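S.,

Sequence below, as promised.
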Amino acid sequence: MSYIALYRKWRPLVFEDVVEQEHVVKTLKNSVSTGRIAHAYLFSGTRGTGKTTIAKIFSRAVNCLNPRDGDPCNECEVCRGILSGTLLDVVEIDAASNNSVDNVREIRDEVIYTPSRARYKVYIIDEVHMLSSGAFNALLKTLEEPPRHVVFILATTEPHKLPATVLSRCQRFDFRRISVESIVKRLEEIAGAGGLTLQKDAGRLIAKMSEGSLRDAISILDQCISLGGREVTYEDVMTVAGVVNDSFIAELADAVRERDVGKILELIEKLVMEGKDIAHFVDDVVHYFRNLMVCKISPDPGAVIEASREELETMKRQSEGFSQDEIIQIIKELSALEPSMKWTSNSRILLEVSLIKLCEDRTSPEGADMARRLAALEARVNHMDLVPRSEPGEAIPPGKAETGIKKRKAPTAAVRPHKPVGQGGGGKRYLESWSETVKELKSTGKMVLYTYLMDTKALILDDKFVGIVFKEGSSFNKTFVSKLENMEVIEAALSKSLGREVRVKCLEESDVNDGPAVQEAEEKDELVEKARDIAQKLNVPLNIIDE
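The prediction came back faster than expected:
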């Protein structure tokens, strides 16, 4: 007899053997026991969680001659015929390869005939989301009003791709990912039945790699058993799966924290020489830094992270060496790297460049990065011999070139009395003169800008900043107004109205509800003042663009 894969050999035959999915099993068993059999069911969930398995058990249970508390007996003539595939009243269809209108029409023509030996004709349509639009339309009427002797079981990993008209005609069951503990328990049972020993850490590694899919976990165990030993070890799993252990990734994380580029390149060389899959490795590193982030922000990371006590302590220690923003930046950088690896043969180079870049600059917030750069620039300025810049009309000494960036013109106008300020809710101060300023833009021919500002309000953030508050859902208007040329026009008009120079910041209503805009403006203002001091020392013009 030919070899049977473990996941097929250990496929449950009764509801009781199904791992987890109790919410599905209980409902279906009660349906069989009470005879309340619906005409269409939808099983949705990730791969390897038991959708097809339960569909097959249910197809036998509704037709079994001697059901036992909702379970099929698997001994009667009908059960044996379904198990062997000789009973034509239960039909399994792969919608991935039978997705045309003609395939569904064949089903529609067959359902009118009564079953030959069973009580119900059962159609199990796997990967049903792969059906074409025409096929769904052809199936719709049959799903809505099928003959009394027909049961449809639709299985899919992507239920969002099904038409609403199909979803509304089915009883839907969502299958959950299987927990690590349940997978390990099942793997130990399978290994024990074969006279093998499965190390605890090896079982947990298989379970974590399977990501909630019991079928994937059993397939990995099957491959490990093929190595020929009587014990499946942690090293066997890593060898078969082509992954690295957590200590290797922890070593890489330490190198990134210490910005040790030489160590990083050494580790990647080792990774490549051992023949490990780089794309899979990047995914593991992203997941590892996700765990570091959880350790950083969660009071009880053990409740969220699947790891041993020693691994958890290592992660907690490492998370202290990173700021939360740094970890988020690393996750973003490496996550963006993953899609690129599918289209290049230089995965190693991409990984090395990304990690070196992270070592050079791990700061995520733009404000913090600007502050760091300004501090470095200020330190350099303090140790420079500065050459005064010539005034207009003054000759520039030979060999000296004028330094500077094109200066943003500051608005100048006659001073007007300060307009009264309206008091808003929560202590917010709004400009009563804002509507007049907007109308003035209209009178000066800025009709497009006037149109985008009609439904806005102006909020006083501090002495130097005024926030233009856009209503929710006005992101397009906000983007248009935020352009540099438009901001200059508005700032000039506002400065003229208020009699003092002000800067403008575009906000949404949600930005000002909890008051973060004021704090952000103050932090930004501090950086701007620092930049202006440096520019003054260098005697060069300064252009700061607020985007």
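The first helix runs from residue 6 to 9.

Coffee later?
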